[in-house]
Amino acid sequence: MDIHFKEIELEDKPVFDHYFSLRHYENSEFTFTNMFIWRHAFNLRFSIIDGCLCTIGRFGKDFYFFFPPLDGEGSNVDSAIHKLIQYFKKQGYPIVMKGVTDITRRIIDEAVPGLFRFERDPNNDDYVYRTQDLIHLRGKKYHQKRNHINKFLRSYQYTYEPVDDSNIEECIQAELEWMKRKDPVPGLEYEKVAVLEALRNFDALKLKGGALRIDGKIQAFSLGELLNPEMAVIHIEKANTQYHGCYAMINQQFAEHCWKDVPYINREEDMGIPGLRQAKRSYHPVKMVEKYTGYLVEE
């Protein structure tokens, strides 16, 4: 039978939310927000195959991939995987399964033992922090972070405010203004699209947000949501680097105002970018959500 993969639309949020809620997933990919705001960058499509949520994508011109099929009530993972493989082979695509975690790897191995081999994909590992660490920044290891924040407090008069209908347009304009200053690099346009999608669909995506106002203007904002009952995920964090310590301040303030009752915060991956890796490590994650890429053993 032919499988039809449809584009991801806002109306599909209940479908994705249902599948993501069935297990205790900790990887940042498994939120509807991430699937929705990055759908253009990664050409994401989905289909329900044998009761499994199956999402496929393409990065660039010819890097095709699929995420692990997510099981549901009465689903058949074995059959769904074989149909995905058949679909990819029919299209002439290589068989590449991205975003595999320990949970989904176990599901795959139980459903189709010995069919896939898995290679570590550390560039896509998610960084997970204790929320209280990000709020209080205690101890010698956070000394530099406290210095950045103290300098910020000495230098600027600021107010923190939740992101809502009253300031979303200001956040959009701030993002557009900051993007103009950046040197064009591959992927920057996709990032801008993702940020604007999140802001323009803020209520429909059920996001939470926080912003810093300095000199009467929004100079930083952050957007996130609950990933599971014990973990929030930060999708977007943007700041005007002309204000020293702005990133450190929005990080700390958003954690304190929005997530203080949630034990952990997932701040997503570093994508192998050295500067981003250094920044994420400097906040001392308590664990990493390790990722793998799956390939057919026969290939």
From TrEMBL:
Top-level taxon in the UniProt lineage: Bacteria
Family annotation (InterPro entries): Acyl_CoA_acyltransferase (IPR016181), LPG_synthase_C (IPR024320), UCP018688 (IPR016732)
Domain Phosphatidylglycerol lysyltransferase C-terminal: 24-293
Alphabetical list of PANTHER family matching this protein: DUF2156 DOMAIN-CONTAINING PROTEIN, PHOSPHATIDYLGLYCEROL LYSYLTRANSFERASE C-TERMINAL DOMAIN-CONTAINING PROTEIN
Name of this chain's protein: Phosphatidylglycerol lysyltransferase C-terminal domain-containing protein
